[in-house]
Specification:
The chain is mostly beta strands and 373 residues long. The protein has 3 helices and 18 strands. The radius of gyration is 26 Å and the shape is globular.
C-alpha cells in the first residue's frame, strides 16, 4: 500500500512538472496583449456544462469532457457494463443568427485504462453584406470558425490524465487563418469519496495571423475545479477560470439535482471577479439576467435507456437567449443485458443454453464400421 502511494505521488509530481513546463513555454504569449482571437473556443460546448454555469472541470465526463477536461473521457455512464463507443451531437443557437454545431466521439478501452476521442466544432456566422470603399453593396460575405480535435486519456489509479490536440481554422470571405492548440486535463480522487478535484489548461498554442493583420493570441484558459456530492441526488461544483490574455478571473458555481432516475435539473452562476481596464473585448460573462440576477444559467436532462437529451438556456439581456440542445448515446453492453444474459467472459456452462440430447442404442463400439463402403 505504501509503495502504491509513493508511485502515485511521484506520478502526480511528474504531471505537475509537465503542466508547469507547458505554461513556461507559453509565457511569451501570455502578456503580448489583452485582445485574443479564435474566441469561438470560449463558447461552452455541451448543454450539460452550459446549464451548470461552466462549473465543469471536476465534473467532466464522457463526450462533454473533450472540450472541458480531456481526462474525463475515461468516465463512462454507470449504466454501461462494456461501453464500446459514445456519440454526441450538439446544436446551439447563438446571438445574431449565428449557429454552433458540435460532433463528438469517444472509444474507450475495455480495460478502462485508456480512452481516445475525436470532436469537430463549427461556428457558422450569418452572411454579411460586402461593400466597397465607397460603401456600395457588392454581394454577401460568408464566414465560419472550425476546430478539429483528437484526444487521449489514461488512468493512473487515483489520477486520470488526458490531452487533446486541436487544429483550428477561421475563414472570412475566402481568406483563412490556421493554427493549433493543446488542451490538458487532470482529475484526482481525494480522501473523501464525495469530493473530486480537477485541473485543466485549454487553448495552449502559438499565435495566429489573418492575412496581413497583426498576430493574435488564442484564448488561453486555466481552470481549477471541485465537485462535491452532498447527497445521492444533489451535487455541487465550483470552478475558477483564469484568462491571462484578458487578465480576467471568473468564478463558476453549478448545482445538479437528479429528480428521478431519468430526469436531472441544473442551475449555474458565473461571477466576474476581475478584469483589466485595458481589455476592450466584451466578456462572455456580461450576460443578461433571470429574476434580476445576472450571470444565471439553467438546464435539464432526460435519459432513456442509452440515450441522453440535454437542454440549456443562457440569457444575454436585450440581445436574446442562447439555447443549446445535446443528444448523446452509448453503444455496448449495458448492466441490464449483463444481468439478464451473463457476462460474455463467463464459462459456457453458466450461460442459459437450450440443449437437445440424442441417445442412439449401439450394440458394439465399432458400429460405425458397417457404414463404410
Amino acid at each position: 500500500m505504501k509503495r502504491d502511494w509513493c508511485v502515485q505521488t511521484l506520478t502526480l509530481r511528474r504531471l505537475s512538472t509537465f503542466f508547469l513546463v507547458a505554461v513556461f513555454f507559453s509565457a511569451p504569449s501570455l502578456f503580448a496583449g489583452t485582445a485574443t482571437g479564435a474566441d469561438f473556443l470560449k463558447i461552452p460546448i455541451g448543454a450539460e456544462p452550459a446549464g451548470l454555469g461552466e462549473a465543469y472541470t471536476a465534473l467532466a465526463h464522457g463526450i462533454n469532457a473533450l472540450n472541458w477536461n480531456p481526462a474525463g473521457i475515461l468516465q463512462t455512464p454507470s449504466m454501461m457494463s462494456r461501453p464500446s463507443m459514445g456519440l454526441s451531437v450538439s446544436h446551439q443557437d447563438q446571438l445574431e443568427e449565428n449557429n454552433l454545431d458540435h460532433l463528438g466521439l469517444i472509444v474507450p478501452n475495455q480495460s478502462g485504462k485508456n480512452s481516445v476521442g475525436f470532436d469537430l466544432i463549427r461556428l457558422s456566422y450569418a452572411d454579411q453584406v460586402a461593400r466597397t470603399a465607397d460603401r456600395e453593396a457588392v454581394g454577401q460575405v460568408s464566414a465560419y470558425d472550425m476546430a478539429f480535435g483528437a484526444a487521449m486519456a489514461h488512468n493512473f489509479g487515483r489520477y486520470q490524465v488526458g490531452t487533446q490536440l486541436k487544429v483550428i481554422r477561421q475563414e472570412l470571405a475566402g481568406k483563412q487563418a490556421d493554427g493549433f492548440a493543446v488542451d490538458m486535463g487532470l482529475l484526482s480522487a481525494t480522501p473523501s469519496p464525495r469530493l473530486v478535484m480537477g485541473l485543466a489548461v485549454r487553448n495552449l498554442g502559438p499565435q495566429m495571423r489573418f492575412v496581413s493583420q497583426s498576430s493574435y493570441a488564442l484564448p488561453l484558459t486555466f481552470s481549477l475545479g471541485s465537485a462535491y456530492r452532498v447527497t445521492r441526488p444533489l451535487t455541487l461544483a465550483v470552478d475558477v477560470h483564469y484568462l491571462p490574455q484578458q487578465r480576467q478571473t471568473v468564478l463558476s458555481i453549478g448545482s445538479q439535482f437528479s429528480a428521478g432516475s431519468n430526469f436531472t435539473l441544473r442551475a449555474g452562476y458565473l461571477s466576474k471577479l476581475a478584469q483589466a481596464v485595458t481589455n476592450s473585448q466584451t466578456s462572455e460573462t456580461n450576460r443578461g439576467n433571470i429574476a434580476d440576477v445576472s450571470g444565471l444559467a439553467g438546464g435539464m436532462g432526460f435519459q432513456f435507456r442509452q440515450f441522453n437529451l440535454d437542454y440549456s438556456l443562457t440569457p444575454f439581456g436585450e440581445l436574446g437567449n442562447t439555447q443549446m440542445l445535446t443528444l448523446s448515446t452509448w453503444f455496448g453492453e449495458t448492466l441490464e443485458e449483463k444481468n439478464n444474459f451473463g457476462s460474455p467472459d463467463a464459462a459456457p456452462e453458466s450461460l442459459p443454453v437450450n440443449r437437445v440430447i440424442l441417445i442412439l442404442p449401439v450394440s458394439n463400439e465399432t458400429w460405425w464400421g458397417s457404414l463404410r463402403p
